[in-house]
Amino acid sequence: MEFEIAPGFSSEDWKALKARLPANGEWRGAEALWGKVIGVLQSRIQTRFLDSASLLRANRYAGFAILALDCLLLETIEAFRSGKRAHSTGESRDACIRLLTSSAHFRQFFDDSRADNFFARVRNGLLHDGETRDGWLVKSAERYSLVQDLDGGYVVVNRNKFHLALEAEFRDYLTCLSVPENTGLRLNLDRALSDLCNRSRPKSEANSAG
Q: Residue 112 has what pLDDT?
């Protein structure tokens, strides 16, 4: 059975496209093929995450919902970039810390310790219990920085600035995929999309395919 990876692009479409991709991730001579792959990824992320967050931004009380989507998207981007998904809480933590501390859009706000606290008190709190923890607050006012310490041990995450930074990080990733020298990055995306298709099948079908 076919299933949709992105609007208008199915698992069978991916199988056919993958068969034509250079096995070494070479860009030159395969620009149109890799451009299609990058477009599929962009469409998937845009329709499943970014469009939904945009619809919520006007809602004063949608900070938790937007930031929860962003926490999912953050790890999704890192999974495509690294070519592997997290299999444990520890691997999810590592992925979150890696992106927040290496990204040009986040690293001025996050060192390892702060990124670890964000994972435990914001990401885990929102995704598991619909709450933030231990004095971490979600705000949208322009006067707050992307992440900012307040008196009394509170820490604010500006949900608008965090989301815009994550959008910029995703755009940068898409741009990097089309740099001819970034063969490893393209091969990781190839592997991640194939793994995604395999995981989305019923277990019996996935086992026989693998």
A: 97
- Which letter does DSSP use for residue 3 in this model? -
- Distance (Å, rounded) from C-alpha 86 to C-alpha 208? 23
Q: Which tens digits make up the pLDDT trace of 65-83? A: 999 999 999 999 999 999 9
The region that residue 206 occupies, defined by phi over 0 for left and psi between -120 and 50 for alpha, beta otherwise, is alpha
Is a pLDDT exceeding 90 seen at residue 2? no
Nearest alpha-carbon partner for 32 in 19, 20, 16: 20
- Give me the pLDDT at residue 205, please: 57
The DSSP code for 58 is T
Sign of the dihedral defined by the CA atoms of residues 13, 19, 25, 29, in that order: negative
Q: Are strands 4-6 and 155-158 parallel, antiparallel or unpaired?
A: unpaired
Determine the length of the chain. Answer: 210
Domain range summary for the chain, segments of one domain joined by +: 4-205
Write the pLDDT tens digit of every residue in 131-163. 999 999 999 999 999 999 999 999 999 999 999
- The Cα–Cα gap between 91 and 107 comes to 19
The distance between the two most distant Cα atoms of the chain, rounded to a whole number of Å, is 58
Model's pTM, two decimal places? 0.92
Does 206 score more than 70 pLDDT?
no
Residue 198's contacts (CB-CB under 8 Å, 6 or more residues apart) are 206, 209, 210
- Do 3 and 11 form a contact (C-beta atoms < 8 A)? yes
Return the closest-CA partner of residue 85 out of 192, 170, 188, 189: 192
